[in-house]
Structure formats: structure tokens, C-alpha cells
Please model this.
Amino acid sequence: MVQIEEDILGRNNEYAAANRRWFGEHGILALNLVSSPGSGKTTLLTRTVDALKAELALSVIEGDQQTANDAERIRETGVRALQINTGKGCHLDGHMIGHALETLRPDDGSVLFIENVGNLVCPAAFDLGEAHKVAILSVTEGEDKPIKYPDMFHAADLVLLNKIDLLPYLQFDVDRCIEYARRVNPGIKVLQVSATSGAGMDGWYRWIRATQQLALIGQ
Amino acid sequence: MVQIEEDILGRNNEYAAANRRWFGEHGILALNLVSSPGSGKTTLLTRTVDALKAELALSVIEGDQQTANDAERIRETGVRALQINTGKGCHLDGHMIGHALETLRPDDGSVLFIENVGNLVCPAAFDLGEAHKVAILSVTEGEDKPIKYPDMFHAADLVLLNKIDLLPYLQFDVDRCIEYARRVNPGIKVLQVSATSGAGMDGWYRWIRATQQLALIGQ
Model:
């Protein structure tokens, strides 16, 4: 069983490495958005795409077990989106992304958002070739998620602490949540945002811009 | 023996985590420059400091087994530098950096360059709390270094392929060297530079600027 798992992950890493190389050659910034179901990923992504589409070339890969609803929400912004349905699968993998790139063909120098299947466990182990995993954590989920799902918060470079407009109505200790995230990943960044009110979203856009600048530098 | 090594690395990781947290709280970008002896690190750093000191707050920690020559070379630029002599030690460690920070006290929002002891092995294992390891590889060293010292090139996020002004006089296959670096680290960036002629250095400065912007974002 362990052997099979290692083989699967090993093969995935090869596909992910090929994707990463391709992104590097084309100056494409690929971001892998991971979260629990219902964290507000698609709302956050729709707002982000609307805010940045005039200044950056963007495209989106949406992952869900079923339905193309999310890709349709993104397409309404005018940005190209491709839906992957994983069926019984609980995460996207490097091979699926490789195939999606053949169809989507993101522009050189563009930003590709990959919205993973809502799941705080399995997507942590499957590299897609992205530059960064970005974890979206809604304050309605409780501040203990980083220590309950340490693999995910260890794998992510940025946490978007979403739905902060609801903080007045919740028992949620922001400092404790950040402390928990740092415990599993001392270098992790945390931005407090609300995708519905727009609060804090400017920090996320600045992060994307600076990260995209980095994607354009070097071979 | 393995147990002792694990204990030492475990303790180092605690010191490094404390440094990383402190850098994060103060918006300081810490870069750990690693290379073989004689790769041109100090020349590269001196030129970098001269180019950026007007626009960014900078400071430097120099690591060498003996002598304070390198810190003196940096101080001639007008930028603060602190020398650490490791004596018999072949690398800087998290504890040394923590103490150095107490003396050096880098400004909030500044860039701290840490020039490690010239060594392509030991510094790879010792996290200092830096945001990125930057490996300097001189083209006079041969293109096989990434596969001969995979730990270092796996740990680094950026390679500065230095002394490219000497390429006309050498048998050095740049593409093969980059391919070797990618083999051990598919996400690694490679910039071709000459610290003496200045060729390619603008890409490195752009990388520093964008990375420093990221250090200012988030908690």
C-alpha cells in the first residue's frame, strides 16, 4: 500500500516537474488555490480576476468532482477558464494540469490560477508544478485548521484568511490562527481579506503583482 | 552519530524559525548567499550593494572561518556589515545569525544579505531563517556542480551563474549547467551575470526588488 502510494506520488512529481519547467520557460505564474469546500475560493477568484484582468493576462483552471459551475462563473468575467471534473478524485494532479494546458494554452507572461478541489488533505500531497500553493481559510471554519491540517499549511506559502467581514459575529481568534499557521510553517504569510467586501484584497493583488514580476525574471 | 546530527539540525531549525519569524515581523528580506570559495560572492555583493544602497536599506552579515576582510570590503561601500568568524565551522547557523541580529539591528523593511562560508555542502543543511538561498556558481567551476552538489541546488531558489565574461575562454556549456540545475530542482531560476563587467546584473536587482516587495506584504 505504501509502495503504491509512493509510485503514484513519484509519477505525479514527474508530471509536475514538466509543468513547472513549461511555466518557467513561458514566464507564467501558476498559483494553486487550495481550501476546504465553501471557503469562498471562487468568489475570491472572481473578484481577483475582475480587479486584475485589465493589467495582467489571466486564465483559470477549475477543479471540482462534478459540475462546470465554477468555470462558468469565471467565464462571465471575460477571462478564459477550463473546468476539470475529477469524478471520484479528491484533488487535481500534475497529469490533469498538463492536459489542461494543451487546451487552455495560457499566454506567455500570464498568471494562471488553478482552483483545486475543496479539500484540506489530498491536494497538499500533489504538486501541480505551481509556483505557490495559496490556502484560503475562512474565519467561519475555526482557528485550529492549520494545526489540524498541518500538511496543507506546511505546503502553502500564503494564507488568505477570508470572510473577515464576519469577524464581529464569530468567536474567532485571528492572532491564534496566525500563531498556529506559523507553528507548522514559520515562513508562511497571512493576509486578512474579505472577498465580498473587498477589505484587504489590495495586499493580495500586490502579492500577485510582485510574484508575477519574479516569474518573468530568469530562465 | 545520526542521532547527534538530527539533534543539531533540530536545534538549528528552532533558531532559524525564530529568525524567520523576526524577519517576517519586521518586513526584512534575508538572503543567504552560498557558493564554493572563489565564486566571486563578495565582488558580486559589493557591486549589488553599490547599485541598490540609494533605493533600499541594506545590511550584510559576512561569514568566514577567519579574517574580517569581507566585512571591511562591504563597509567601504558605506553599508553596515558584521563579520562572523566560524573558526573550525564550515557554515553559519541559526544561532550565530540570531546573535548577529542583536548587534547589527537591520532596519524594518530592509534587505539583509548573509554571505555564508564558501562551501557547497554544509550550508545546504543549515537553515538561517532566510527567505531564499541564492547559489552563486562561477562558470570557471564547471557545469556539473548542480548534480555533484544536489543538496545545495535543491535548497536554493536562485542561481547566479557568475563570471560569464569569461565564457569565451572556457569550455562551459551554459545550457547543460541549467539542465543539471533543473534536474535537481525543477523550479530553480538561473540568471547569467558578471559581477565584474556588470552584465546581467539588472535581472538580479529586479529579482531583489520584487522579492523585497513580497517581504513587505502580509504578517
In short: Chain B touches chain A through 26 residues (CB under 8 Å). The first helix of chain B runs from residue 2 to 26. Strands of chain B lie at 29-35, 58-64, 80-85, 111-115, 132-138, 158-162, 189-192.
